[in-house]
Every structure is written in structure tokens, then in C-alpha cells.
């Protein structure tokens, strides 16, 4: 089972900064209740995969939610500030939250790697409002995550009323069937790891997918800032496992360059 505390952003926060200045837990929690957006990233040796995509995500959401530009140096400055001079590896989140003006909050927690072994998933009827925005502090997704964990699953597949899969509660879903990489054709957050996998040199297609379709596919996987995770079953139905296909996916992902923060 995946540790849902990490899944829901409840890992132990080592430090936090607001507008580049260190804050205590109470100040951070006060801001946590605010309206905003964020991005989650893994830092290794003070480098980040897809750094430009993370900055672009924050800038686009900031224009949409706050009608304001977010300078790249402000984003990078927040990450550097929360890492300080000593942290080289960490799980970092950069939030922009409402206040007297939009405030940039960054948190650092211990680094997280993709769990090994196939994940179990179950469909849940739920569609996020403004699905393309990575929204801060989503009660609904946290609740769904806790409920499916209690039922013995690692992740929820969010679906429409008629069963179309859009995404996981904090992941994107993909399926690699032979030579074709499939993604759901539904409203979703266009995740950073998904965008990096879309650069893989194989035919790719957006297609309506339902839970009943998954057992017929060659390999189903989830992806987020942790990396790539194979899906082993949906409800009680086992899914095919193809080590060669997962190796191809991992080889592409592992070859993505890490962009320096300094």
C-alpha cells in the first residue's frame, strides 16, 4: 500500500518559506487555508526534471487565478530559499496563495521515490472544477484518497458519470499498448511527468478510456512527480504486466535531463 500521508502532501515538512523568508508551522498553516495553486517537484543534487514546465505551470495558473504575472526569478528564488545551503535532495512544493496579494510559499520535505510493485486502483465518480489547474489544498481529493486507502487501494481513478477516466486523484494514467502510448481523452491536469513522457518517440493518442478497457491493454501505469508506477489491478480485476514495456517507459523517463537550480 502507498503511504497516503505522502500521497496527500502530509509528509513531514522540514522547512517552509513565504516570499523567500522562513516561517514557522503556524504561519504556514494559516496560509494553507487560502485559495491558490501549486506545483510539486523532486529535487536531486539541486536539480529538477522539467524545471521549465514547472515554472510555466505556475505562471499560467497565476495569470488565470490572479490575473498577474509570476516572474521566473521569484519561483526559482522560493525553491532556493527553502532548500537553503544544505538541502540537496528534497520533495518541494511551490504554492501561490491569496492574501493581501498573491504570496509565494515553498515547502521542503524528505525526497520521495516511486513505490515499487504494481498499484491497485478503483474508479470514483468525481471531476475537478478547473481540472487543468493544480489547485492547492483540495479537500475532495484528499477525502477520496483516504477513502480508497481504507478500502485497500493505492489510488482512485477519477471518472465522469458515464465512466470515462480522466486522471488519478494525484496522478495521470497512461497505457502503453505495443507501440502506442495512450492517454485518456477527458478533462485532466496535464501533469509534468505526463508532459515529459509525451516526448517519448512512439506513436501517441488521446482516447476515451473506461475501467473496463484497462484489462485489454498491454500495460497500464500512473505517473506523477515520484515517477512511473505500474497498475496491477483495477478493483478485483488483474491487469497485464509487461516488464519490457515498463522498462522502455523508465528508460525514456530516466534519460530526461535534470535542470540545475543554481
TrEMBL record:
InterPro entries: Aminotrans_IV (IPR001544), Aminotransferase-like (IPR036038), BCAT-like_C (IPR043132), BCAT-like_N (IPR043131). Coiled coil: none annotated. Keywords: Aminotransferase, Transferase. GO terms for molecular function: transaminase activity. Pfam families: Aminotran_4. This is Class IV aminotransferase. The lineage of its organism: Bacteria, Bacillati, Actinomycetota, Actinomycetes, Streptosporangiales.
Amino acid at each position: 500500500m502507498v503511504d497516503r500521508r505522502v500521497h496527500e502532501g502530509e509528509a513531514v515538512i522540514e522547512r517552509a518559506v513565504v516570499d523567500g523568508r522562513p516561517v514557522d508551522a503556524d504561519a504556514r498553516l494559516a496560509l494553507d487555508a487560502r485559495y491558490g495553486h501549486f506545483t510539486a517537484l523532486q529535487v536531486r543534487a539541486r536539480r529538477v526534471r522539467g524545471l521549465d514546465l514547472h515554472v510555466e505551470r505556475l505562471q499560467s495558473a497565476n495569470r488565470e487565478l490572479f490575473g498577474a504575472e509570476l516572474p521566473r526569478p521569484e519561483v526559482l528564488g522560493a525553491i532556493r530559499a527553502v532548500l537553503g545551503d544544505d538541502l540537496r535532495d528534497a520533495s518541494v512544493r511551490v504554492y501561490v496563495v491569496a492574501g493581501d496579494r498573491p504570496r509565494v510559499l515553498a515547502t521542503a520535505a524528505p525526497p520521495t521515490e516511486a513505490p515499487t510493485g504494481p498499484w491497485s486502483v478503483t474508479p470514483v465518480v468525481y471531476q475537478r472544477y478547473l481540472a487543468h489547474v493544480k489547485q492547492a489544498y483540495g479537500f475532495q481529493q484528499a477525502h477520496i484518497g483516504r477513502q480508497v486507502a481504507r478500502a485497500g487501494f493505492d489510488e482512485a481513478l477519477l471518472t465522469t458519470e458515464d465512466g470515462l477516466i480522466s486522471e488519478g486523484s494525484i496522478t495521470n494514467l497512461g497505457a502503453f499498448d505495443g507501440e502506442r502510448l495512450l492517454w485518456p481523452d477527458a478533462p485532466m491536469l496535464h501533469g509534468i511527468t505526463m508532459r515529459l513522457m509525451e516526448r517519448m518517440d512512439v506513436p501517441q493518442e488521446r482516447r476515451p478510456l473506461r475501467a473496463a478497457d484497462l484489462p485489454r491493454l498491454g500495460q497500464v501505469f500512473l505517473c506523477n512527480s515520484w515517477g512511473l508506477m505500474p497498475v496491477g489491478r483495477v478493483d478485483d480485476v488483474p491487469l497485464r504486466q509487461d516488464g519490457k514495456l515498463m522498462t522502455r517507459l523508465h528508460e525514456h523517463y530516466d534519460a530526461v535531463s535534470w535542470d540545475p537550480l543554481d
